[in-house]
Specification:
heterodimer; A: 349 residues; alpha/beta; five-stranded mixed beta sheet; B: 272 residues; three-stranded antiparallel beta sheet; 7 helices; 25% helix
Chain lengths: 349, 272
Amino acid sequence: MSKYRVVMYINQFFAQIGGEEKADIRPEYRPGPVGPGNAFKMAFGEDVEIVGTCICGDSYFNENMDSAKAEVLEMVKKASPDLFIAGPAFNAGRYGVACGEMASFVKAELGIPTVTGMYVENPGVDMYKAGTYIVSTRNSAAGMADAVKKVSALALKLLKGEKVGSSVEENYINQGIRVNMFEEKRGSERAVDMLVKKLAGEAFTTEYPMPDFDRVEPNKAVKDITKAKVALVTSGGIVPFGNPDHIESSSASHYGKYDIEGVTDLTAETYQTAHGGYDPVYANQDADRVLPVDIMREMEKEGKIGSLHRYFYTTVGNGTSVKNAKAFAAEYAQELKADGVDCVILTST
Amino acid sequence: MAGLKVASYIGALGKDVTPDEVTEYETLTLKEGMAKYPDLPRVGYVQMLQSQGLLHDTYVYGVDAKKTLSTVIYPTEVMDGAIISGNCVSACDKNTTYVHENNPIVYDLFKRHGIDYNFCAMVITNENVYLADKERSSNWAAKLCEFLSLDAVIISEEGFGNPDTDLVMNCKKISAKGIKTVIVTDEYAGRDGSSQSLADAHSSCDAVVTAGNANQVITLRKMDKVIGTEEYVGIIAGGWADNKKADGTIDVEIQVITGATSEVGFFNLSAR
């Protein structure tokens, strides 16, 4: 079996060219491992060859990012590696940015896996954690041995195409993707441990940091509802009988758009709910209870509203991820706007 | 009802059997506990009971939890079957009667009782769908924690989505009383894991134990023998149309598996 090919990226300091006074050197390529590459070579053993190392000064890279990264990319491309390692950069800010930028860029352009390493407070972490694996390292090069061990372990998994586990198992900084894993202790015991630590005022790590919650301010009131075109939208799963688009009873992957021109009443024969999260009996008997088409038609007739929009949009809220729900709404909100709808009644269950 | 009858029949058979092992769980009254452990922090367990309606129900001494007010029980009462399950839909994070009787939070809190803290009491509170009910139940749960002079509590959720709001209300209101909180929940982060996991959030929820992402997709192997019908594999909560493949395997979210993401921490599954 031929060896896996790895190309590395390091700065002027780790290439032992010089410190700050040499931070302006232009990108260059050297065959084989350089500096930390030798430690990686040891860690990888027989299966992996470090075919070359790209070197660039931190100032040069950051001041000429577009041209520098294009130049380094060409070097990487020529060496046709299976994987690219940048750094590790520890807590060096400009080096962290260079490593993050190169690792993300090479991954995006060449489609090969990339790994870098940084201290959690390196500014490069927030900028690039979604674009590449960033192994969590100590804050200085004193942590090199540990960083090499962790980066090479993850790199080997990626090279072999093995399944990469969660961030805490594989030592990379969380990319905002939730990955299931098995803990050594069951959940109840972990809860008791966390409670005891919290009581004692000791440090503890939450397993799910609270997200920045997307709270939407309601629009201003409609000036004249008797002239307004009103649309109905629901997360209560009301669909034409038989659920023609197979909207899931939970964790909906799509929404439906249905024409209600001429429809004055939703009956048990014509409409139903696809929702699996509430008692469907009453919605199936009379879907107007969730999507009030009958009342809206009456109000339309009496001139209490301008008109009812020709289409309603529907999905199932049950277990549907916020991300999916947001994507549905972003899409049909544009259609509603284009259709001249003035306001929407959003019903849930 | 048939299940309950069978359970009581089997239970009666074991009534006079000499047990292989006997363990005692100390359940003191408030006064006795205070006298015995004057210097230990006072800890409680707030268990949220699923009460959203049809197939999302729980019974406490035979009373539908929807119609109950938040109350206090001895933790040992659940071991004796005080709480039973009427749940089925989105099975991954619903507690079966077996899990109620063997609630691991109760057992694990007892392990360090008298050493790290005094495990004083258990508060049970429901998860009704009306806002007024949610406000009343969470206010009451927080008031009981204060009334019991608790220093810290574990709060466990049952279900997801709608009950996430009850969970956050409970955590927010109990924390506001100056009581430290740890919450146990599961996640609906989408099949790719990139979505926000809960339907509500608050800064007081800073100590979270998660039982994993219920949206994770797995493939169930082909079974040589199937008992019952396969009619519902596409419409069960956690399935989808065409999820049954020609080779007999079925793709599903782990949401379909009873207790897979147990929010009383029965298993070791988690997520990061």
